[in-house]
Design brief:
- By secondary structure, this protein is α/β, with parallel strands linked by helices.
- The protein has one domain: Purple Acid Phosphatase, chain A, domain 2 (4-Layer Sandwich).
- About 20% of the residues lie in helices and about 30% in strands.
- It is built from six helices and 17 strands.
- Strands 9, 10, 11, 12, 13, 14, 15, 16 and 17 form a nine-stranded mixed beta sheet that branches. An eight-stranded mixed beta sheet has the order 1-2-3-4-5-6-7-8.
- It is globular, with a radius of gyration of 19 Å.
């Protein structure tokens, strides 16, 4: 099925905004989990966006126990307590991998992905950027230009950069960017692939790898969008893929989702969740 032009996606998304209210009610809060829109929050913790940043629906404050996180419409997560920024699955060099395999895929040499990350760091000014795996797509895409970009990444972002090694990073030389195993940060367990904390303590698993998406449907129309996805059973938050040239996998219906669309974060019930919620109210 051919991809839909950007103009068509925009019109379709606007159409979905007028669905019945049960489709897009914010997720109910629990004692463990709270979702708060930034526009309703008055705290001014360190790391809040600069004056020219959008704050209305462009991010969503979210709490897991004592951990406050901010979900960003740029497909990243901000941790204000330590001024750290989390991203996952950039898959740099993917177009070059396809080209090396004989597939004539156009490439901008990852300029768009790296520029978005650079602007995100200019906006939030993190002390450290933590990449949750799959920084690159494969060794065939490691051009001299990309290796130079990786070695200079901390200067470009004006922040320390830490890479948790992903399955696509196995052939990345440590001279470009050292890789680290999964580790604990406060009440967070940071990893590339979904996993339970390896230290035996409870924690929220913050990870990538899945490239979570969900599909909106109304009659014959459908639109697939990246999303953040929280699994209350596994205590896990999936981060959408940051890269420009990445696919996606549908989340499970039980996951709570925050859609990323047109520079906004949209709390979302899919049809199955909405139906269960309605039955529970009865």
């Amino acid at each position: 099925m051919p991809s839909m032009p950007i103009e068509g996606q925009t019109m379709l998304l606007k159409h979905f905004r007028y669905l019945p209210a049960k489709w897009c009610n914010p997720q109910p809060a629990t004692t463990l989990l709270t979702a708060i829109n930034v526009e309703n929050s008055s705290d001014q913790a360190d790391g809040t966006p600069t004056a020219d940043a959008q704050s209305d629906r462009a991010c969503c404050r979210w709490r897991w126990r004592e951990e406050e996180l901010v979900l960003l419409a740029q497909k990243a997560i901000w941790r204000p307590s330590s001024a750290e920024l989390f991203v996952a699955d950039l898959h740099l060099g993917k177009a070059e991998v396809f080209q090396a395999c004989g597939i004539p895929l156009p490439s901008d040499e990852d300029k768009a992905t790296l520029l978005r990350l650079e602007r995100l760091c200019e906006q939030w000014r993190p002390k450290r950027v933590i990449i949750l795996g799959d920084l690159i797509h494969g060794p065939l895409g490691l051009t001299q230009r990309l290796l130079a970009d990786l070695k200079n990444l901390h200067h470009r972002l004006n922040a320390d950069v830490l890479l948790i090694g992903g399955n696509h990073d196995r052939r990345l030389d440590s001279s470009a960017l050292p890789q680290h195993p999964a580790f604990r940060l406060g009440e967070l367990w940071l990893s590339h692939e979904p996993e339970q904390p390896m230290d035996g303590r409870e924690g929220l698993n913050l990870c990538g790898h899945i490239h979570p998406t969900t599909t909106l449907r109304q009659g014959p129309d459908q639109l697939r969008l990246p999303c953040f996805a929280f699994d209350n059973v596994e205590q896990r938050m999936l981060i959408p893929a940051f890269g420009e040239l990445t696919g996606g996998h549908h989340c499970r219906q039980r996951d709570r989702k925050w859609l990323v669309a047109e520079g906004t974060i949209v709390p979302w019930f899919d049809s199955a969740q909405a139906s269960r919620a309605c039955r529970a109210e009865r």
